[in-house]
Amino acid sequence: MSMKITEDCIACGACLPECPTNSITEGDGTLYVIDQATCVECEGHFDAPKCVEVCPVDCIVKA
Fold it and tell me: Residue 5 in 3-state DSSP?
């Protein structure tokens, strides 16, 4: 399973440094995207997905 960033993203960048697999990148400039192939939901790194914890608008959900 992996995470997904919804259209509610405000492109604040809070999630970028938190991703242990560098799966989050800038999309089209208005929101960020998560690479489904490399996202591991932080398993083996943290107890829960860090991107979800730091997102100020709660726009990251399970894909």
Answer: strand
Pairing verdict, β 60-62 and 3-5: antiparallel
Neighbours of 39 (CB within 10 A): 20
pLDDT tens digit sequence for 32-58: 999 999 999 999 999 999 999 999 999
Ordered domains of the chain (ranges, CATH): 1-63 (3.30.70.20)
3-state helix, strand, coil in the chain (%, to 5): 15, 20, 70
Q: Is the model's pLDDT at 6 over the cut of 90? A: yes
Q: Which helix (H) or strand (E) holds 60?
A: strand 60-62
